[in-house]
């Protein structure tokens, strides 16, 4: 069935061919085939299961086609999606400490687990947190990406609160295409290379496509960029770690002095040549001179390689029934690196160095008093390295067809979808604390070598290697390292399998056309586990202890959808259509839920489309939320009971005293700025089997204007609003302290444990359904192609998103906290993001220029300065105050990045491309609350990235 094309559709078809990034602002999505149909056959639009001849929808959809993707110079789906204006903050390759090589998308800054990711309209495997790792989807197989910027739980079920990302893979491809890409930063690092090849063949009964790709992305070291080579830029060595690479004694000498050097009686200061302790008899004083800059050892951009094989096929069994199948294998190898472990004994544990250790300077054989020693040593001889090997498997098999009945047209499909991701992790550089304890125990010289003994003069402990943590930098021997170091082997799995059946078609004639419907069922099972190394689970390593996580749930769903065209081709209503949908879901773990949707689209005139939607949504708690085993976490926080806390007032002081915090208490951290820093005791993360689903309401209202008097111009403006109730939230340390001591909420006080001296030694950080979130804003999109000139063809595209409200009510009784324009750690709440592209083509030559804009942000200043005191001089408004006291702020300026690509079509059906991203090497704004590197990982890595790409087609 065909329909006469309109000027709007002609403009859309051109924009798709030109790779217009703002195309989705018009609300257009295309059928899940490799090419837009030359006649407007029935197509399925992301956000609806009803196939229609009309590609215009009531919902805003952004379309990134292959032409646009190829102009970005990017080699991963994640990086492409993280640049769109509607995206907020999500994990990516710039997350080193806390990252695992995965990359995600978080529409509207609502978290990646509230954005549903589909591949060819079907769910993809998720992590234990409920998010999808986009690095498991190779960019080489992508035909286009459709981003629905509206809630869609009534159509797709759980997780579609912020929106839906539908990645459409290549199909109906014929011929052969090969591509090679190479690029690096101007500093000569961060090399990236990729190769892929796609081959397709067809006959009169079907088509097969096979694609093979490999991507290699190298690291960038934090020490190779000015902004990240110090823990806090501008403060230099004052923020270096007290855990230095020289062995250090933390308890005082006999008269209270700090021991700096002890040598055997009668020996010179340089030691006795031939003695096993020669060159290893130094300890260093507690002095800033012996701190350590751990930042230079970290990755700024983490390395990874991805290898994938993808196959997709269709076979027409009859003229109306087809068999479809696709399969994929993707392997990701990734790595993170941190400075050597800051090992200690007696600072936050009981691993003191024995007074009978041969390496203890207080050993009685050297005239000492035989005291046990509190010590520390950063193991710079071996950095901490975290490696992942992630293997993702996907298979889909199904039947689909079409038929006519009673002069009505129907489509149907049934299929089985299987996805599994197996991950094996290696943690290198942690210490086996059982061996450390043995190595710092009693030891002495036997037959010219130092050995472990069970007691002075006692039996030798076989296999034990005495460990000298008081060695100077680099002095820990390889034999010692081999004995105390430990490599953990962890395993993870995420698994999803589902059976689906759908049918859509026409019911009866209305004044505006045929009423359409879609209905279907889905039965799905989700499962996964995290199985840490036995030593990690037992708590015998220097790293964070972690208990196993394992769980599963299943669900059955049924949905129905109607498209009701009331009017068409009448004055004031060239089109008036309503849509209704509802989905019932029955979960094995928390029960059932019903979510519905209402939408409309109205064309008062041919040039103008008005559209709007109201929809309910939900998000089921993921496996980690429900079943997570207890896990250690070393949290950075500021204790509001500390005397040097900047916001401390009379209410806080009274509640702290009532809670047993002694007067004069000062928070102790292993590093930090004033009261703020990282705890020296691990806090506890855990799951909540009683967690329930989140619920949401989404609303959109907007228009698409394509004036008939200006060819090839499309403008769209959409208002959007999302409200989430019972939002799952894991309270931070700051949240717990605030609720306990500012508001006197005893339930939150029960989550923390203090010692008699006031020091917090544990907090229980457990998710629960207690938050309310409301987000609101506007999306503006425009695309225009100028008439062809003697100087070539020009097209202009704008894709922008403005957030007017982002409020979160943390717990019942709280006042909403506005976050628009604020920067929180790893969480920037930009007010405005926009991408603008100018594309010029003349003959075989083309140039694309893109500007990417992020508005400015404001963060709390972590440096406390009172009037009359010297200013630190780093924050833009350091002396700002409120009624409670100092309330400094720091401004992160607006940032604009520029990208350019030159392309040339060769006579032998090849294309060569030269490009640069961040052409002017724009530096990211400094953020003092950033977890690492002094800037947020959503910004570009400092430096200009240049690349070359060649494509050959046959």
Automatic annotation (TrEMBL):
It is a multi-pass membrane protein. Residues 1-31 form the signal peptide. InterPro entries: Beta-barrel_TonB, Beta-barrel_TonB_sf, Plug_dom, Plug_dom_sf, TonB-dep_rcpt-like. It is found in: Cell outer membrane. Residues 489-919 form the TonB-dependent receptor-like beta-barrel domain. Keywords: Cell outer membrane, Membrane, Receptor, Signal, TonB box, Transmembrane, Transmembrane beta strand, Transport. SUPFAM superfamilies: Porins (SSF56935). The keyword Plastid does not apply. The keyword Transmembrane applies. It holds the Pfam family TonB_dep_Rec_b-barrel. PROSITE patterns: TONB_DEPENDENT_REC_3. Residues 55-164 form the TonB-dependent receptor plug domain. Belongs to the TonB-dependent receptor family. PANTHER family: PTHR47234, TONB-DEPENDENT RECEPTOR. This is TonB-dependent receptor. It comes from Luteimonas salinilitoris.
